[in-house]
């Protein structure tokens, strides 16, 4: 069995995403979905994820063991026993992630995880001091598969434990006093999906830029930004020497002949099909950018249905940016972040 974790309230969306990927899936509890049965036909046991990885899941636990205990010490001992057995024969000589978290947002569960983490750490230090010294408590950054020890509390007396996870790259980003909007955090988090951020000297076209959080993020890194919006720029984006503000319509703005931007940014509050067909598709088809970060608001669309359309073999993303990633990131509310690189 595999268990997927997501934000509370997104469980049904995730079930539908998994069913579309060919799995049998059911809600397991707050913030958790179980994938049952064999991996989908055509999938492999190592992946069987949708193209680009899960959108609604931030974590996939592979074949987790369920530790149970009615006290902190009993839980720590059960996890310690399981871990001791699971690493038998392994050589651990590199730092490894040892991450304790809680599924959903039930009150007190995160505190329970912290208390058990502490008790487990003490047991491990006594039993396997060298292995304990190499452990790091931070959730690994990035999107992909990781090895370590991952413990997720699903109830006060129960936790799922595994050594292999897939992580979606969701991260809480640090704010910047000069950033003119909270939207700044969204683009900062989305860079992690691409594994890179704008570099000094690169060019960025930011469509729907005001008040300028995304433009500020790129310009702070030394990129030159064309910020397209009829609205005013504010804060650190206002009069920034690397930001050229154009009061134009994002849907009709075009690069000059032969111009290709390194980055397309797009964060419009518009119907997502309209944004994809009227704006993103021409930008990708005409290769006016090398890579992109866009946000698609759910609006009145059905989120899993939108996801399915974005991933269809004939979609603009599949045709022009294979490998594009659609994700529901930590700083996304009712919207997807979409990133990709043009081949
Ligand atoms: C969510 S805000 C963008 C926030 C921005 N990413 C930031 O970090 O501050 C959406 C912006 O899209 C702009 N917008 C909506 N439709 C537009 C259009 N057709 N052309 C240009 N800008 C548009 C709005 O004026 C608004 O400023």
Write the layout of secondary structure elements.
Layout: E1 2-6, H1 11-20, E2 24-29, E3 32-36, E4 57-62, E5 65-68, H2 72-86, E6 96-102, H3 109-127, H4 129-133, E7 135-136, E8 143-155, E9 158-168, H5 183-194, E10 203-207, H6 213-220, E11 224-228, E12 243-246, E13 261-266, H7 272-285, E14 289-297, H8 303-311, H9 316-320, E15 325-327, E16 335-341
Parallel strand pairs: 6-7, 6-8, 10-11, 10-13, 11-12, 13-14
Antiparallel strand pairs: 1-3, 1-4, 2-3, 4-9, 5-9, 8-9, 14-16, 15-16
Helix pairs in contact: 1-8, 2-3, 5-6
The chain binds S-adenosylmethionine.
The site of S-adenosylmethionine has 22 residues, from helix 5 and helix 6.
Summarize the structure.
The protein is of the alpha/beta class.
Description:
The protein is of the alpha/beta class. The chain has 2 domains: 2-168, VC0802-like (2-Layer Sandwich); 183-341, Rossmann fold (3-Layer(aba) Sandwich). The protein is built from 9 helices and 16 strands. The strands form 2 sheets. Strands 1, 2, 3, 4, 5, 6, 7, 8 and 9 form a 9-stranded mixed β-sheet that branches. A 7-stranded mixed β-sheet has the order 12-11-10-13-14-16-15, sandwiched between helices. Helix 6 (213-220) links the parallel strand 10 (203-207) and strand 11. The longest helix has 19 residues, at 109-127. 44% of the residues are buried. The mean pLDDT is 95.
